[in-house]
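Recall the central idea of this unit: under ordinary conditions, the amino acid sequence of a chain determines the structure it adopts. In this exercise we apply that idea directly, starting from the sequence alone.
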Amino acid sequence: MSLKLINIGFGNVVSANRIISIVSPESAPVKRIITVARDNNKLIDATYGRRTRAVIVADSDHVILSAVQPETVGQRVISNDDMSDEG
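Accordingly, the structure predicted from this sequence is:
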């Protein structure tokens, strides 16, 4: 298994193998997940002060906030998988 890194904006990368979900931050349950992660010191804010557009949940219970759209991050994961299949 190789290390696959996904750009989540502003030069920040996340291991694609550790991502469980990529969701929009608009719903109340997702906002609650963010609050719980903040309280448990498991929140990583990679927005650089910009508006949060994607919430990435990792298998380590870390929650990562990104200023990139969830669809964009998802496409980067998919295109990264396609590139690794070729090589």
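Residues 10 and 23 are 19 Å apart (CA to CA).
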